[in-house]
């Protein structure tokens, strides 16, 4: 493109830059040569060239191409221009499934950075899969898989730090809860301690007939979770039955280690597998089977 709008290959003259703005950028202001000349002077690196007819060197032309003034993004969209006073249920909400995972849901790493990245990208609904952990505080990970575990308390601290960096509108924490009641109570205490006034714990309007609006919920964190049934017992574990596509490990009929023979070297190799009602999934190879391992059983399930 630079060669198209330069005669000597070294610089872009005022007239050549004006042609570029008219033909490529479709900029109506380029019809005014004085405006184009003034505009060019903002990118001149050498003040001595601030003449009647300025010109661009190659670096200066590139500076313009990658500048904010040449950004295709309409700056008016930096601000929310939609009506945000309607009930929350009237909106599409940018959501994330298995937010903690950095890869597949069978054997990838779990990371608190995944939460930070998701929130910074504008996500307003993120998921936490919680399971009983040590010291009476849960872990977040994909249960019954080879995914790594991260501490629940580290996750919610990260959420607090990044929740409203990109947007002031509410963040919804979708909890897939596999914890016992004692650890659920510890989770509740941690939510209150970490989030403080950010946590929505009371109705915005006591006698409201509809859900509050995003505008009413600015800078609020909302917990999405099933309530315990009346008359519950200590042994009850609340699970989120809404989660789960066909390939979700929580819907597996069976899972464990599957041994498959490598067609090239004919070694038996371990693969993590899961069996659903309709399909069987297995991960990429884990490790070759040692000679002294028992190869008669081709699965070892929990």
UniProtKB/TrEMBL annotation:
SMART domains registered for this protein in UniProt: PLCXc
Domain PH, residue spans: 251-302
Subcellular location: Secreted
Top-level lineage group: Eukaryota
InterPro entries with a match to the protein in the record: EF-hand-dom_pair (IPR011992), PH-like_dom_sf (IPR011993), PH_domain (IPR001849), PI-PLC_fam (IPR001192), PLC-like_Pdiesterase_TIM-brl (IPR017946), PLCG_EF-hand_2 (IPR057061), PLipase_C_PInositol-sp_X_dom (IPR000909)
Catalysed reactions, semicolon-separated: a 1,2-diacyl-sn-glycero-3-phospho-(1D-myo-inositol-4,5-bisphosphate) + H2O = 1D-myo-inositol 1,4,5-trisphosphate + a 1,2-diacyl-sn-glycerol + H(+); an N-(acyl)-sphingosylphosphoethanolamine = an N-(acyl)-sphingosyl-1,3-cyclic phosphate + ethanolamine
GO MF annotation list: lyase activity; metal ion binding; phosphatidylinositol-4,5-bisphosphate phospholipase C activity
Protein's recorded name: Phosphoinositide phospholipase C
């Amino acid at each position: 493109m630079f060669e198209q709008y330069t005669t000597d290959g070294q610089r872009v003259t005022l007239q050549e830059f004006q042609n570029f703005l008219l033909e490529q950028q479709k900029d109506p202001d380029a019809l005014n040569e004085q405006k184009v000349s003034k505009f060019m002077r903002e990118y001149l690196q050498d003040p001595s060239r601030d003449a009647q007819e300025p010109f661009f060197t190659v670096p200066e032309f590139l500076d313009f191409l990658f500048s904010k003034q040449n950004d295709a993004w309409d700056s008016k969209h930096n601000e929310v221009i939609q009506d945000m006073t309607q009930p929350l249920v009237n909106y599409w909400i940018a959501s994330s499934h298995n937010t903690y995972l950095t890869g597949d849901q069978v054997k990838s790493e779990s990371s608190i950075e995944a939460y930070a990245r998701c929130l910074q990208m504008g996500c307003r609904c993120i998921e936490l899969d919680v399971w009983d952990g040590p010291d009476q505080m849960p872990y977040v990970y994909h249960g019954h898989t080879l995914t790594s575990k991260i501490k629940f308390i580290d996750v919610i601290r990260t959420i607090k730090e990044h929740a409203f960096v990109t947007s002031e509108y509410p963040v919804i924490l979708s909890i897939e809860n596999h914890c016992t009641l004692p650890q659920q109570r510890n989770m509740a205490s941690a939510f209150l301690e970490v989030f403080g006034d950010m946590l929505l714990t009371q109705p915005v309007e006591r006698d409201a007939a509809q859900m509050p609006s995003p505008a009413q919920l600015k800078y609020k964190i909302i917990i999405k979770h099933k309530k315990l049934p009346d008359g519950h017992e200590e042994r009850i574990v609340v699970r989120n039955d809404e989660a789960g596509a066909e390939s979700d490990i929580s819907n597996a009929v069976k899972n464990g280690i599957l041994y498959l023979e490598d067609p090239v070297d004919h070694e038996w190799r371990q693969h993590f597998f899961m069996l659903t009602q309709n399909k069987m999934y297995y991960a990429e190879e884990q490790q070759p089977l040692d000679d002294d391992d028992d190869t008669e059983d081709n699965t070892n399930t929990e």
